[in-house]
Amino acid sequence: MLIFSRTGLAAAAVLALLAVPTVGFAADPHAGHSHGAVHGAESLKADLGTTTVAGVEVTVVQGNLAEPGKEVAFDIAIGGSAAPKAIRGWIGTADGKGALKGKADKEKDGGWHLHVEAPKTLTPADRLYIEVEPQEGPRAKAGFEIKRK
Q: Are residues 34 and 69 in contact, defined by beta-carbon separation less than 8 angstroms?
């Protein structure tokens, strides 16, 4: 017959709790791929131009040179009175097939910041496409020539 003491049971309970995986910590969404030194290397500041997309004036500045399979950063300035609901972007073809699309983050200064991954096979025809979702009305997109390494 086994006899358990309160102290022994308490110690066993503590050890059991320590053995249980911690719940509540999300997996790193960036695990499994490299961002390289994108945040520290956003010094290119290449103006890709200004156009009107879905009634919104959009100016795009590229932060680093595009390389196959690497992340590229863009700053997007919006002109006009109504800020869009969302801005999305990708590098590839206009239809977006096979492209890794990203959603731009709105910055405190009113601008937007976008990180997208260039295709592993970056062709001369690939461009940055910016899709604007206005407060009202249909989404629209425009293409911008990108700077490459």
A: no
Residue 29 domain-assigned? no
Residues spanned by the domain of 124: 39-144
Q: How many domains does the chain have?
A: 1
Q: Is the pLDDT of residue 120 over 70?
A: yes
Distance CA 149, CA 65 (A): 5
- Nearest Cα residue to 117 out of 91, 142, 98: 91
Assign 32 a pLDDT band (cuts: 50, 70, 90): very low
64 in a structural domain: yes
pTM over 0.85: no
CATH for 105: 2.60.40.1930
CA distance 114 to 103: 7
Please report whether residue 137 resides in a domain. Answer: yes
Residue 99: phi and psi, rounded to 5, are -85, 150
